[in-house]
Amino acid sequence: MIKVLNTGFYSSIQDFGRNHYLEFGVPYSGVMDRKAASFANALLGNKEDEAVLEMTMTGAKLQFQVETFMVISGADMSPKLNDYPIGLNKVVALKPNDVLSFGKLNSGFRCYLAIWGGFKSETIMGSKSMCQNITEQFKLFKNDELIVCDYSTDIIYKNASVRFNVSYLTSDIVEVLKGPEFDLLSDDQKNQLLNKSFTISKDNNRMAYQLEENLKNNLKPIITSGVLPGTVQLTPSGKLIILMRDCQTTGGYPRVLQVKESSIDILAQKFTGNHIKFKFISS
């Protein structure tokens, strides 16, 4: 068991989400940054999509009540174990009454805590991912108790880390494909999309990232159609909205771009005021 002493800004249990329920209006959900979460799980010998704790902007404070192992990956939030600094992307042994805390955000925006064997929260529609209106709670609260396994004596603990390429945490290049309505744009609009730098607005969360800069728009709304995480919509006012993991399953705004899966990881580590540039790829 792990007791939540403090939740941080926004912390939730996430795996790789719900893949077969779009027709019922159920979002995918799941970790915003799959690269970091799957790497942390891999170091522990877990399945890559095992449930992890996702923390946004500020980390949680947790008290462990079992012996186990953990890995922290993604954003650098200055983690400490019993007030002593610990490294990212390495296996760390835990004992009962150990307290994990976090401090200053040094890079990135979302941090992932993987536990040996994964978090054992309730599975709903094939996933443990917390999501508003789908699961009983959509984020952690103070004094929550999280179920985890005692570690197996079969695991061999080594005080070593594996190099993890963190360059994506600061990359501003977001690779994109043509969206279904891309060819309806004028040449000028296409040039702006692919040559202009855009700023992440304060309206950013697990559902969508809105960009500050407008793109002149005279396209008509479309018949409500399917959308996915990574779909870039163009609103009548000219705002660009990038849909993220908890996005709706349909929408009526033109879908001008589709973000490559690996670039969603890059976006997940961005926050208000950060800049991005779209880079067109053929496939």
Automatic annotation (TrEMBL):
Among Gene3D superfamilies, the record links this protein to: Cyclophilin-like
Q: Where is the signal peptide?
A: none
Carboxyltransferase domain location is: 23-283
| Top-level division of the source organism's lineage | Bacteria
Query: What InterPro entries would the database entry show?
Result: CT_A_B, Cyclophilin-like_dom_sf, PxpC
The UniProt keywords, alphabetically, are: ATP-binding, Hydrolase, Nucleotide-binding
Q: What is this protein called?
A: Biotin-dependent carboxyltransferase family protein
